[in-house]
Amino acid sequence: MTITATRLTKRFGDKTAVDGVEFEVGEGEFFVLVGPSGCGKTTTLRMIAGLESIDDGELRMNSVVVNETRPRDRDIAMVFQDYAIFPHLSVRENIAYGLRSRRVATSVIKQKVPEAAATFRIDHLLRRKPRQLSGGERQRVALARALVRDAQAYLYDEPLSNLDAQLRHQAREDILALHQRQRKPTVYVTHDQSEAMSMADRMAVMRGGRIEQVGTPRELYENPVSAFVAFFIGTPSINLFEATLRADADDVWLEAPAFSLRLPPTTASAVAGRVGGPVTVGIRPEDLHPPRQAPFDVGEHNKFTARVELIEPTTAGSTVYLTVPGPEGDLDIAAGFTARLPDRFAGEQVPLAVDLGKVHLFDPVTERSLLLGAGAA
Amino acid sequence: MRIRIADVTKQYVREGSLRTAADEPPALDHISLDIADGETVSVVGPSGCGKSTLLRLVAGLETADSGTVYYDEHDVADVPPQSRGIGMVFQDYALYPTMKGAGNLKYYFDVHRRTEEESRARAKEIADIMGVGFELLLGQQTTTLSGGEQQRVAIARCVVRDPTLFLMDEPIVNLDAKLRESTRMEMAKLLKRYGVTTMFVTHDQQEAVFMGDRIALLRAGRVVQVGSFDELYYSPANLFVASFFGSRPLTVLPATVADRAVHAGEVSWPLPAGLADRLAPGPVRVGVRPEAWRVAGAEPGQGAPMAVDRIESVPAERLTLAHGTVAGARATVVVPAGTTAEGLRLVPDWDAAAFFGADDEVALHTPGPPDFF
Amino acid sequence: MTTDIVVDDDAAAAEADTRQPTTSSRSRRRRRLWIFLGPALLLNLVWGWYPLATSFVLSFTDARLRGDVTFTGFESYERMINDPLVADAFRVSIIFAVLSIVLTFVVPIFVAILLMEMPRRTMRWMMLLWFLPLSSVGTAILWRYVYNTDYGLLQSIATGLGFDRQPFLNSSDQVLFWLVIPGLVLYGPGLIYLATLQSVPTSYYEAAEIEGAGFWRKIWTISLPRMRPVILMMLMFAVIGNLQQFEWPKLMTNGGPGGASRTAVMYVYDILNQLRYADATALSILLFVLIMLIVGIMRFAIREDPDAPPRRSLREFVTRKGDL
């Protein structure tokens, strides 16, 4: 089965929550909708489920328009943020709920429910009531309920947001295991980009009711079409600041208030028409290196200094938060080092080497990328 | 100000019963913890570990059954919360909904009968510290603000009264991931600037590491370990600490130490001499971090085969991960880019592996922080 | 490994020092508790428990308005139990209670469920109509007009539809039925049901819908179980209230015709009017015992909490009844 959304629109009063959203979820694809709260991702998911009416546009499942189809006739399974398992029913009855609703034979239920429960390691809890379960176990009941029915599509509404960090990882693997088993189109909503990046086959970043960009996690990370997508993908967030493009005899330079950086030839030619004007520069924290550890030659053209404010130890090294003083306020910079920066550097000025081959440039007004051709957007 | 929590125990009385039920575990079980002047200590633990109770106890919102809380050298048992000079920030912001942002800030001065000029001047000062756009928030009704904006007002309200102690109870848990990142940065800068003693409660280990000079890990009402990130991560006191920290899960292999080697499932790994001398033969559990695995050579017997569920690439960290099973245990492993799922064989990096008791969780050997510099 | 777990002698000594203040703050807290609870407890004692105790004592005497009071043991109880009118009054009370519970208790459950299905605006208007605050004396006068056999509203409707003239409240067979009907509008616990239903997370219904549940299945598997604690509580109130019914039959029929709507409490009132204090209190105590018995059985037999784990055996229930 496939799910196709064409100009999906939803209004609440005079507010447009979802504004002409388009995407296609292919056979067996894991598709993630991600965005900040209020971006319309949950409303979009609820329209696919049939829990919200569609004001405009078309929703197709297998090329059949299902705009007016009732939720229970869409043959979907959904896992809710609060799990929505019924507290007055035992685990067994919760899992069997959909089968009983569809009048499946008792003998089949007796066989399938323990099977689904075993998949999520809750087969020893079948007699319990949800109150006696931990948060992680409740979530697995919801997953088992979704699995047991062999639905045609799976929908998830922030299913991990109520779990402790320690349980989240296992739950993520559980969801992916279910997906690999069923191979049905799946739409997964989250506000957590790292969750989206690690789970998605393809993903869509939403903002203000619209989709900013659709693509594989790697595409979104490497070629963001807008400053928003660049900012949204990746932790710590990309460093964004204003600079002016200046050209001398051979090269194009980025002039920031406290430093200048020389653009590599390919990048320079892409923005040749904008010399003299302002641009928004995006540099990922992981593209800033201590000069001696940089995997490229470092000179005055790709280096600037900043003062260390905070050093956060990470398992891979450290994230260093720095500031560059400027005439109009300090510029905050985050840098992800693969080595640990010793604490004695706190408050010190340190040089940073910039991997300029990976720099992103955006139009300061439209926020669109200047490096991607029109086709990429 | 220095905070000293000395051997505090607290047991909630179960509803409907007059006595403390003996089978009910205490919410706080002989907890002792020091927070030095100007220090930020993160108190972290899974839900129900007693971390919020501890914070409420320091605030004076709960009373201890036994034990004492000292502010500097003063026992504060008889000091009501409003007289303790603390600033508290709650998970649900707890702003006064009937007032605008500015009213929330000035409330304290109104209650304490300060002059209008003084309160206005102070509110202005705070707004400058809180940064760009903050004054706009002050003019708005708090109910119309977003979660992040509400929390900024709540933090400002806390700062405005010049507290000698900050108590924060999961202040940013209700914000979405991106907003959390910027808000915690703002808070960290603020704390650094003021140097106010702070207790920061959270369930998120990453947030605890970010905010805290030191981190106290709680479980079931007890302090399991207190220390810096490096101490907790590289020298965990037990298996619980080891598996609590780290952004990706620790692999725990049930194994046996015998004949100067580790036997796990069907594989045997010879131990380096130093380690073999230190470990007594017998059953153990080996904890291996995702980044502490090495891909073994092709020759047989050289490592445990991994049954790979999926290979994931993490562009933001320039990493490739393999998820699957090694020697019967769930494992997430950092592998070189381009690694394929077939024929993947792994050896733990013994310089980075930790050993725990098979029955208890106590650490038998921990690697200690690697030589960073 | 460095930790700051300080358990040295200083700390222990400090703890010993401070035990005193902690206790004093707790006892202060307790004192404050009593100050707040005191007035309410006092009132309850004076106006609630004292009269109850007195009437209990009175029921074992031959108390009259004047004269000496002597202890008579169970004489007044014997007299009451042998009084055929007492049996009649209890019968009326019980039939009234059963009728009233079936009609005014069960129907609103379904009305509330149906209201939840309506659009928001319609629901609000219906709620307003249904739950108008009405004074019982006022409505009694109104309903007396409705039931009037000569010029009443219901009579005109009945004759208009071609039925014979109906006796309504004048028939000793039908009087209880007609008395109960106004309760549908008056004493509906529907508002409480609605409030309960509104507190059920909508995701339950959405999940059920996606799982393929139809209208009735959603009611049966979600609405009713979620309402169960409230339904049981209201049932308890309904039993207690209806068995003590007095005001409504007093206003509408004054017990007629021929005692066919004279409830137990009305009979107590009649005996009091004859100044037979001992008999009246004895009858009250009998009614009290009956109600306690029914309520006790209900509490024992019906599990209130729908989310509690299944009860294994009666013995386990008895040993763990503290949980109830």
- Percent helix of chain B, as a range, is 25-40%
Q: Which pair of chains forms the biggest interface, and how many residues does each contribute?
A: A-B, 44 and 46 residues
**Cα distance, first to last residue of chain B?**
34 Å
Low-pLDDT ranges of chain A: none
Largest sheet of chain A: 6 strands, mixed
Strand content of chain A: 25-35%
Can you name the CATH architecture of the largest domain in chain B? 3-Layer(aba) Sandwich
**Nearest-integer average pLDDT of chain B:** 86
DSSP strand content of chain B: 25-35%
Molecular structure report:
The complex is a heterotrimer of chains A (377), B (373) and C (324). Helix content of chain A is 24%, strand content 32%. Chain A has 377 residues and is an alpha+beta fold. Chain A folds into two domains: 230 residues, Rossmann fold (3-Layer(aba) Sandwich); 138 residues, OB fold (Dihydrolipoamide Acetyltransferase, E2P). In chain A, the strands form four sheets. Chain A has a six-stranded mixed beta sheet, sandwiched between helices. In chain A, strands 13-12-11-14-20 form a five-stranded antiparallel beta sheet. The longest helix of chain A has 18 residues. Chain B has 373 residues and is an alpha+beta fold. Chain B has two domains: 237 residues, Rossmann fold; 120 residues, no CATH class. In chain B, the strands form four sheets. Chain B has a six-stranded mixed beta sheet, sandwiched between helices. In chain B, helix 3 packs across helix 5. Chain B starts with a strand and ends in an 8-residue tail after the last strand. About 2% of the residues of chain B have low confidence. Chain C has a domain of 225 residues: Orthogonal Bundle (MetI-like fold), CATH 1.10.3720. The chains are: A alpha+beta (377), B alpha+beta (373), C mainly alpha (324). At the A-C interface, strand 6 and helix 2 of A face helix 10 and helix 11 of C.
Brief characterization of the structure:
The complex is a heterotrimer of chains A (377), B (373) and C (324). Chain A has 377 residues and is an alpha+beta fold. In chain A, 24% of the residues lie in helices and 32% in strands.
